[in-house]
Predict the structure of Ribokinase.
Amino acid sequence: MRIAVVGSYGAGLTMRVPRSPAPGETVSGGEFDEGPGGKGSNQAIGAARLGARVSLLTAVGDDTYGRAARDLWAHEGVDSSHVVTADAPTMVGFILVEPSGENRIAIAPGALDRLTPDHLAPFRPAIAEADVLVVSMEIPADVVLGALRVARECGTTTLLNPAPARPLADEVWPLVDVITPNQTEAPVLLGLDEDAVPTDRELVARLRERTGGTAVLTRGGLGALVDDGSGVREVPARPVSRVVDTTGAGDAFTAALAVALAAGEDIADAVSRAAAAGAHAVTVAGVIPALPTPEQLTAVPTHDTDRTHAERNDTA
C-alpha cells in the first residue's frame, strides 16, 4: 500500500484549561505541552503506523520546529525527501483543550504559505506510484488544486480532507474521488447560507453530486453517512468509554480511511475502520500518541452502545 500526502506540518502548542476564556478574560490553572502537528503530517504518520509506505510533501522553516519534524518523520518511516525548507518560520498552532476534550485552535501558517504548485513537479513520481493521494486544506488553494490535478493525470485515487473548510472552486470538485467533511464543513464547501442547511442525508447527497465520486459525512457520535452513487448508507459510530482529547481524531480517521482504500476495502468497511481509528484517538491525549497501530485499531469495540463520541473530523 502506497500513500502520498500533500498537506501541512506545524508545531502544536497546547494548553489544557479549566475552561476557555471569554474575550478579554484571563484563565489560570492551565497545563502546557508542545508537540508536532499539522493535518498533512499527522495523516502521513497515521498511515505509516498502519503499515502503508508514505511520502509527504509539505513546507517547514529552517528552525528548531522544522528540524524536529524531519527527525519525527525519519522515526515514523515517512519519506520526507521532497519536503520544502522555506524562508519563513514553521507553522505554529495554538490549541486550547477543555476538560470535556473539546478544543479551539488558532494557526500561523508561516512556511506553508511558501508552498507553491512548482513544488509538485518533483513530487509527481510519488503521486504516480501511490494507491491514494491524501490532500488537506491548511496549504494554499492553488497547491490543493495542483496536487489533485497531478493525481488525476496519473490515475491515482484522490482523497480530499477539506479542513479547514472553505468554498471549493468549481474546477476542484471533479478531481476528488473521496471527500470527507464533517457536518460543519460540508455547508461551507457547498457555499450554503447558515439558514439554508439541509439534512445530513441531503448534504452527503449534494457532495456526491458535486464530485461524481464518493462523499463521506462524519458526524461524531452519530457515525458517518456514505454516498458512493448507490444511495446513502449509515456507518455506525464506535463506542468510547471517555473522551480525553478530540484534537487528532479527524487525522486518525483520514489516515485509516486512506489505508483501507489503498488496500482495496469496500467504502463502508473502510469508513468503519476509519471510525475505529477516530474512536481510539479521542481516548488519548495529544495528536501523535493518539494515532493508532493496527493492534490498537483491532481492539476498538465494534458496536456503539452509548452513542458517545466515536470520532471528530473537525481538528487540525
